[in-house]
Amino acid sequence: MKKFKLLLLLIVGAMSTAFAQDRPNIVLLFVDDYGWSDIGYRNESFLTPNLDQFKNESLEFTRAYIPTPTCSPSRASMLTGKEAARIQMPRHIGHEMPDGSNTKEFGLWSTDPAQRGSRNWLPLEEVTYAEKLKELGYYNVFLGKWHLGHEPYHPIHQGFDEQIGVSNFGHPKSYYAPFFKDKNAYQEFNDQKDVYLTEVMTDTAVHFLENYDKPQPFMMTLWYYTVHGPHIGKKELVQKYVDQGMSQKYAEYHAMVESMDQSVGTILKTLKRLKMDENTVVIVTSDQGSFFENTPLAGGKRYNTLGEGGARVPMLIKHPALTKGGSECATPIQTIDIFPTVMEIASGKTYKDDNIQGKSLMPALKGKKMKKRNLYFMRSYEDQYAAIMQDNWKLVKYHSGKFELFNVVDDISEEKNMIDVEIKRASKMKQELLNWENEVYAGWKEVTPQNSHYFKINKKKTNRKDIK
Description:
Blueprint: H1 2-22, E1 25-31, H2 49-57, E2 59-61, E3 64-65, H3 71-80, E4 106-109, E5 118-119, H4 129-135, E6 139-144, E7 162-164, H5 197-211, E8 218-223, H6 235-243, H7 248-273, E9 280-286, H8 308-311, E10 312-313, E11 315-318, E12 327-329, E13 333-334, H9 338-347, H10 362-365, E14 375-378, E15 384-390, E16 393-398, E17 403-407, H11 423-441, E18 452-455, H12 459-462
Parallel strand pairs: 1-8, 1-9, 2-12, 3-13, 4-18, 6-7, 6-8
Antiparallel strand pairs: 2-11, 3-10, 4-5, 9-11, 14-15, 15-16, 16-17
Cofactor: Ca(2+)
Domain Sulfatase N-terminal: 24-346
Protein name: Sulfatase
């Protein structure tokens, strides 16, 4: 009898190990301020051979959007599967203290007409995909930019087993060492003046992959600092673009994009070299549109951020067992959809959660049609603040009472405002957006002088139309 029980335990253990090994690893590569247009196969001025090749192996979501196209809220949305507005984070996290930490729960922004408070950290009670994956037996490592709160709210407290290269700040002071103002990230390189941050992050990711020896599957979340400012490219790459006649600022940016592409390529080649590629799902996307022009899309990071140039981002997913290389999905989706998608990839089961707004992308990965739904947007910096998308149509709302309506498929550059033409459609969308706003505001906590910090923005000093 004892021998039988022992044999049974060995069989169950072997089955559990086999199940763990069969479940795919997941790698998420999240680029900062990387515009939809800034990729080689859409704009030949950018050299992105690795992303170009990855597109041939992946499913591209050609209309992927950010619910709040701004740094911190974009990250909060993807981590939780929730619209950032429902977390009361319609704006990025500012910094009150010299080390990038915060003392107040909310921040107020001087240029915001509505004076809405926005959270200064991701509350620990919010459930992240890392916490859910841990329940499924996954090992979670986080690399790079966090920008969702200072030390008490860092990844290690949000479900991740390991964090590397995490700073309190939303961007480095330089892409050449020393990188950061605080003492949290990559201090060991401070005396190595020729070391480039994107390459350090790449080496860190490769080291993790080469040395991973745990029996359970893993998810590697790599959030790049690049291509966020300060725009400092690798010197030799910058010179190449300058020699081609490009201005200094564009040469710096193009060099940063090329370095990022090289990083993606190195990670993909490492997965293949280690024979992990056939059992690893890879996701590549961005947190918002580019700081620079986003032609043919309207708007971007600095202004008209709910325009296609600010809210639409690249998104490519390769699932070795499912995706047809070079395929595309034109159904509008948002990065909140990554959360339930990851859950279904990891569990092999349909994921249902009434607490999130994200919807699984698995139907598209399997070559099936996605169900259409309304997408909602909100940010809180200026007059333009909310939007609703229904299939091809987007309605944009301003505090001043102005509305705009665009067919973003027929008019990708949003040049023809149809608000006075599509009157019935506009009226319906206005009401649905208002209903959504009321539902969102009902869950907001009161912001008071005691729990908030006021950030005064000098727009003349920055010489920018919008601050993020």
